[in-house]
Amino acid sequence: MPQTTLQGKTYSIRTFGCQMNLHDSERVSGLLDSLGALEVAEPADADIVIFMTCCVREAADTRLYGQCSSCKSLPAPPGGKRVIAVGGCIAQRDGEGLLTNVDNVDVIFGTHSIAHVGDLIARAFEEGGRQVRTEEREEAGATSMPWHRATSYHAWVPIMTGCNNFCSYCIVPYVRGREKSRPVQEIVDEVTVLVRSGVREVTLLGQNVNSYGRDLFGSSRFAELLRRVADTGVERITFTSSHPKDLLPETIDAMAEVPAVMPHLHLAVQSGSSRILKLMNRRYTREHYIELVDAVRERIPRIALTTDIIVGFPGETEEDFAETLSLAERVRYAQAFTFIYSKREGTPAAKIDDPTSREVILDRFNRLVKVIESTAFEYNQGSLDQTVPALIEGPSKKDASKLQGKSPWNQTVLCPLPACARVEDYVGKIVDVHVDTARTWYLFGELEGGAR
Ligand code: SAM
Ligand code: SF4
Ligand code: F3S
Q1: Ligand 2: residue whose CA is nearest its atom 1
Q2: H-type helices in 53-169, by residue range?
Q3: Which of 261, 309, 346, 393 has the fewest Cβ atoms nearer than 10 Å?
Q4: If you average pLDDT over residues 414-437, what whole number do you get?
Q5: What proportion of the chain, given as a percentage, has pLDDT over 70?
Q6: Measured between alpha carbons, how far is 169 from 176 in angstroms, rounded to an integer?
Q7: Is 221 in a helix, a strand, or coil?
């Protein structure tokens, strides 16, 4: 068989959904680069347009259909023929069924078939027709592929794929398969290479990093992994997501004791009502969650606690919601992602009838957002008059004369770009910022000293 090549072709990738998709997209880019293709920003300039899709909520599905359709009105691409490829979680869920909603898709590749995307696209160019691959059991995962990272200083490092938890509302275990941990040494070697190439921060990824290693060793080895990754010399380690039912005391110890592990914990609560948590199959209670939060705060007092909360799970009553509000007030989150429940066909929760009106759910959602905004503001106020080290990511999106970075507590930090300096000289560097303004979603202050 001739060697696959995409020499001279241009490609553009649009990524939706979570960090796992972002990482998968970086691997798809790496593979296409290695086959000779060149990335361009706009689909209009691309011979290959790739959508990495998400189906965690309904809005994500609809967005894909709109985006695919809009490709029909693009001008002809540089090479004459355009191939549209759909990957990610909708591709895995629907396979060819996707074509009932969109008819201009040439390649469909599932979440387990990323290593084959180059061949599938090349075949779509050569043979035409539709190329589909969504088998669940593929030997080669995305992590074995070439890697085209979005930034030089930060890397998403999957430590495991899949999920075994089957929360009753969630589609992810059906589209990402069962938990599969990467070997410790493979992760450590990868981070070592990243550090040598200039990476300063890694984010360890998994749907439930707290159960890392259970499939390999019979029990979680996440705490040990944190310590081993820190031994590589990487300056900042962050991780997501952390399931409360599997958060072990030894993980809290590692967070408290290893300086490279950032003082930020994303601990998704989903609801403050033990009754709803049971219906969600989360396998912890409100009381247990609060105990965990207290234990974490005892070891790491200024920790930034963040969370995910779903409002309007089927059958949620005003009393249940009041418990979510009071939990958010008690925990005082630094930030939270709040979602309105979205029915996902095929999940157990989709079978539960719910008489609650959309207005009532929206009203609850807005009340929750107000509480989160007030605790987020309060959290950031704690940084006033402090000097925080910010890892600079680029210019502020709203004002190019400001630098934007991240503090160890996951806060967005802004400061003025010094006169005559260029943003590029700061990207990927750490600067000290003396905070004089603390708002709900960002800190602002003056640069102190130079970049390092
Ligand atoms: N594995 C992560 C965890 O448990 O923390 C969550 C991953 S999921 C991609 C991100 C968030 O989406 C979940 O924490 C949940 O709040 C939200 N989510 C998942 N399914 C949902 C649904 N059917 N409707 C609304 N929000 C949903
Ligand atoms: Fe979905 Fe639950 Fe798995 Fe998170 S832990 S991905 S919410 S099933
Ligand atoms: Fe979406 Fe798939 Fe992530 S459904 S949230 S992209 S695992």
Answers
A1: 170
A2: 58-70, 88-94, 117-127
A3: 346
A4: 96
A5: 99
A6: 15
A7: coil
Backbone angles phi, psi at 61, to 5 degrees: -60, -50
- Helix/strand/coil for 107: strand
Between 297 and 64, name the one with better pLDDT: 297
Banded pLDDT at 1 (limits 50, 70, 90): very low
- 363: region left, alpha or beta (phi > 0 left; psi from -120 to 50 alpha): alpha
Query: Quick one: tokens of 256?
Result: 């408290």
Nearest 5°: phi and psi at 11? Answer: -140, 155
Put residue 335 in one of left, alpha, beta given phi > 0 → left and psi -120 to 50 → alpha.
beta
Ligand 2 center to residue 402 CA distance, Å?
37
449 Cβ partners below 8 Å, 6+ apart? 431, 432
Query: pLDDT category, 139, cuts 50, 70, 90?
Result: low
Q: What is the pLDDT of residues 340-374, one digit of tens each?
A: 999 999 999 999 989 899 999 999 999 999 999 99
For the chain, the farthest-separated pair of C-alpha atoms sits apart, in whole angstroms, at 65
Ligand 2 test: best mutation among 208, 239, 337, most atoms within 8 Å of CB?
208
Q: How far out from the chain centre does Cα 161 lie?
A: 13
d(CA 390, CA 162): 32
Distance 213 CA to ligand 1 centre (A): 22
Residue pair 30/146 in contact by the 8 Å Cβ criterion: yes
Question: Model confidence over 401-413: pLDDT tens digits?
Answer: 999 999 999 999 9
* Ligand at shortest distance from the CA of 241: 1
